[in-house]
């Protein structure tokens, strides 16, 4: 067994070989059914059948392909704990014991290979240093996002004024203009705000609302995405002696993947430093 594949490489292959084909199968079948009904005058129930078949065949492909990827990835990646955690967050695999996880289709040989892999989970991950990451990273509000929001909302504000002046719809126009004005202000405020929002370093973490705590005092640090209908918000969360912290990072100059990497590197440096003592 040659553990030469990085976690990032394994995840990229999983998304390419599993998620992408699943979407192609599902939406391809659904799209074909819509075409047959709208352009070829097939009965309308073909669309319902297409939706069902798209889901079934997409899931069937996943059930076979995920086992093949899981074996390849966990056999060739050293840090299996990190791989498993990130694969779950990236929705490649499901948590242990979940209903959907039990729909994976495995041969007897594959089941045995997965059992043999459990020995790797008895070993802690090794720390892979990244010297491109400095001793300290400061996260600010994104000037680009703030500027784009302000420009867009100025247009919304102007649209509201147009509705008031030319359409004489004072209620709708006033509401649109008010929304545009409020979010123009917040966009400009974020653009001009140069106060650190998150300071993360080899020593610990501090945010705009939570004092500094060392890595030995912090636990459960993570970057999560919560969905509310069609929208979603990404948060940086962690627990500390004073309670817990939760920051919306959507307007910051760091994205989810970057912050996750920073947390892994800084946490790893801290644990490595403690181990040397």
Mean pLDDT, to the nearest integer, reads: 93
Largest sheet: spatial strand order:
1-2-3-4
Secondary-structure class: alpha+beta
Number of helices: 7
Assembly state: single chain
Question: Termini, distance in Å?
Answer: 33 Å
What is the chain-wise order of helices and strands? Answer: HHHHEHHEEEEEEH
Question: Quick one: how many beta strands?
Answer: 7
Fraction of residues in β-strands: 5-15%
Low-confidence stretches: none
> How would you sum up the global shape?
flat
**Integer count of domains:** 3
Helical proportion?
40-55%
Rg over alpha carbons: 25 Å
Keywords:
277 residues, alpha+beta, PH-domain like, 4-stranded antiparallel β-sheet, 3-stranded antiparallel β-sheet, 7 helices, flat
Structure report:
- This protein is an alpha+beta fold and 277 residues long.
- It folds into three domains: 7-122; 143-192; 195-276, Roll (PH-domain like).
- The chain is built from seven helices and seven strands; from the N terminus they run H-H-H-H-E-H-H-E-E-E-E-E-E-H.
- Strands 1-2-3-4 form a four-stranded antiparallel beta sheet, covered by helices on one side. Strands 5-6-7 form a three-stranded antiparallel beta sheet, with helices on one face.
- Strand 2 (198-201) and strand 3 form a beta hairpin.
- Helix 5 (143-166) runs antiparallel to helix 6 (170-192).
- The longest helix is centred in the first third of the chain and has 33 residues, at 7-39.
- The radius of gyration is 25 Å and the shape is flat.
């Amino acid at each position: 067994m040659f553990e030469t594949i990085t976690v990032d490489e394994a995840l990229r292959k999983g998304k390419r070989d599993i998620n992408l084909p699943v979407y192609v199968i599902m939406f391809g079948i659904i799209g074909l059914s819509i075409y047959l009904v709208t352009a070829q005058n097939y009965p309308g129930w073909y669309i319902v059948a297409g939706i069902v078949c798209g889901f079934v065949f997409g899931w069937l492909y996943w059930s076979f392909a995920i086992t093949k990827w899981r074996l390849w990835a966990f056999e060739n990646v050293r840090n299996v704990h990190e791989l498993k955690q990130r694969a779950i967050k990236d929705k490649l695999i499901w948590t242990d014991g979940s209903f959907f996880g039990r729909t994976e289709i495995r041969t007897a040989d594959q089941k045995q290979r997965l059992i043999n892999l459990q020995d790797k989970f008895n070993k802690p991950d090794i720390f892979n240093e990244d010297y491109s990451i400095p001793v300290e990273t400061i996260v600010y509000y994104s000037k680009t996002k703030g500027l784009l929001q302000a420009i867009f909302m100025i247009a919304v504000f102007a649209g509201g004024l147009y509705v008031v002046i030319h359409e004489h719809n004072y209620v709708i126009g006033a509401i649109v203009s008010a929304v545009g004005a409020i979010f123009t202000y917040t966009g400009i405020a974020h653009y001009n705000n140069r106060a650190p929002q998150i300071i993360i370093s080899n020593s610990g973490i501090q945010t705009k609302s939570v004092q500094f705590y060392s890595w030995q005092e912090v636990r459960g640090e993570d970057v999560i995405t919560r969905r509310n209908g069609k929208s979603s918000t990404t948060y940086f969360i962690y627990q500390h002696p004073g309670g817990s912290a939760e920051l919306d990072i959507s307007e910051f100059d760091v994205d989810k993947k970057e912050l996750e990497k920073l947390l892994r590197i800084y946490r790893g440096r801290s644990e490595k430093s403690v181990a040397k003592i």
